[in-house]
Amino acid sequence: MEVSWEQSVTYSINTIYLLFSAYLVFVMQLGFAMICAGSVRAKNAMNIMLTNVVDAVVGSISFYLFGFAFAYGNSNPFIGTNLFALANIPNENYDYGFFLYQWAFAIAVAGITSGSIAERTQFSAYLVFSFFLTGFVYPIVVHWVWSSSGWLSPNSSHLFLGSGAIDFAGSGVVHLVGAIAGLWGSIIEGPRVGRFDAYGKPVPFRGHNAALVVLGTFLLWFGWFGFNPGSFDKILVAYPNTLDEGNWTSIGRTAVTTTLAGSTAGIVTLFGRRLLIGHWDAMDVCNGLIGGFVAITSGCSVVEPWAAILCGFVSAWVLIGLNILALKLNYDDPLEAAQLHGGCGTWGLLFTGLFAKEEFVVQTYNAGVAVKRPYGLLLGGGWGLIGAQVVEILVIFGFVSLTMGPMFYGLHKLRLLRIPVADELAGLDISSHGGYAYAHHEENHPQSYGDYMRMRQDNQS
Question: If we measure between CA atoms, which residue out of 101, 109, 112 comes closest to residue 25?
Fold first, then answer.
């Protein structure tokens, strides 16, 4: 079939837009690395930064070999069975740019999980769970919700409950999956040594570098403009019956809703934590801001800007409340990843089911072609969409629990999950990586790997 010059230009511009969005999402890996490094104690900074590198490189191989095929192979509603190792790519549906964009999402999931089990996990365990999560668990959820043949997909020809689940950029597919995996890992490992005293009271383990946390937060904010608006895939798609509206309009609105939700969550967290703890806390605000981004990620393309402000307001209190509950339950998550990505991700899916606007749903999923689709319950759209959103939450929790829970438990029983107490007290940097992330460190810590080994021998003798 002969392709016109206009079609070639359109395809080229759409490809450039998608690749640029992929690069923005990849920048989020740097953001995650900086937030993780700043949120742990200095003696574990090198370890957590290395795990972020591992998530990217291991995720690249597993997603190339298996993950993309399981996610986008169009064979049945539950799992893909073709396109392994990018066989027959490019084709009429996918090309290399699309793979790269989806890969950037996949490695972000493993980064969420890594934060939950930071400061106490054997390095080899990261290699195992990162490969399994990005190569199998996450891609299957992607297939259900984002593949055109997925049983929960809003793009399917057989819409679940007449709607499909609207999870536009992944409050559930990305954030809730990573959070549930991290939740089970953290529960099975247990809290860090000394995190709770003999009476169960929490002992503060403050992150060592607020500057890195703030830097990482702004990098994530920047990357989220590829995460959410970039999920349209194509920018040159015109809507019918209009002269000046198309995907470019929705992309701009999506960037606005993303910004408003995150900003609202940040400022509510700022004042909310001020009331609770008596001072202004930069790290809490950064986590609140990210929580707002996580929540809006599901409905960013289908809600009004005013609704995004409401989304951010509620997500801040969800995060604050879950953090209080986590301490009462003696649950230890150094990055608040399960509370932030799980709690705010769940709220984001429910929020979409309540506030999705009919016009925007049609624009996002039918390129503006007039069709009747369920939309937000509180806007008069019926129960179809909110029902599909609840089902997505339940199946993600169940599937990730049934896969990642046994995997972490198996590593635990094989003594491959948690590091020895002596190594944890000394710090993962010196016990696992041969040195510290910084030239200056506390005097009571071993000064080199040789000092560390001699200290171990002295303790054993």
Answer: 101
